[in-house]
Amino acid sequence: MKLARYMGGGQVAIVEEPKPTLPKGGLLVRTEACGLCSGELMSWYMDKKIPHVLGHEVAGIVEASEDERFPVGSRVFPHHHAPCLKCDQCRIGAYVHCAQWKRTKLVPGGMAEYFAVSAENLNDTIVVDDIRPEDAALIEPLACVSKSVMNAYSATRPAVVGLGVMGLMHALCLYDVAVIAYDTNPQRMEWARSVGIDARLPEAHEPADVVIVCPGSQVAFDFAFRIAGPASTIVMFAPLPPGEALIVPQEAYFKDLTITQSYSCGPDDTKTAANLIRAGRLKYEQVISHVIGIDELPAAYLRMKNGEILKPMVVFDHD
Hints:
By secondary structure, the chain is of the alpha/beta class.
């Protein structure tokens, strides 16, 4: 079968490897669609994983199953990490700090013609027969957004910094509250406006009571700090690169700001995301600029990394 391996230095190779076997108590899935995550563009993060199979925004059809909840022929979304649901961290809803969550993964990864889902991963796997595969593949990133948005649920003046895919999802899914989103990339702003988002240059800013910062950079945080009103919240959605410490001005104390982080997601968030998609709150056409085959991924990877395209999704042809 074909799969996509990250080889380092921004290079992706399409290689042939054996199809995975059915894990005990788990699933073997025939991949239908897999998105390229913006986190997979961060060289400082990815170079530690070489050679790594890309892909965790994925949906597919169960080809073999040892769990009656997921029958052969059903479409599933599996999260690549799944918690045990029993430990102290899980009991307080801190799923991303569960030891099982940290060690679980899809084998070999989602950007492959087939992948295996362990029995442990089934704690965060959903049957999505009623959702298009391209939409179902967006459940994982939307679940991360859903977790982040909980910090803005009661906001009356929310703002989003950065209009990459994750910024778009935040702006589209802040429920019924009008949101202002900021970027400096003309192509991203044009796309955002085409899907109904109030996209602005930073110079046209207004005060906000919640600011979600999608880029992992001091510059983005500084802008969020500038527009954050008294007693407001700043949500850091992405980390800064290693060795870079977030600098928080002393004025944050006198503004009575809350600065928080939102890392990944858990089973509650994936269920929320699936229901948002079922309700039509997000469609892949709003955030996917290029639907491609797996052989086109290496070039698309570089184009997304260079900011030339918004986001590609690989759709697999098994005919």
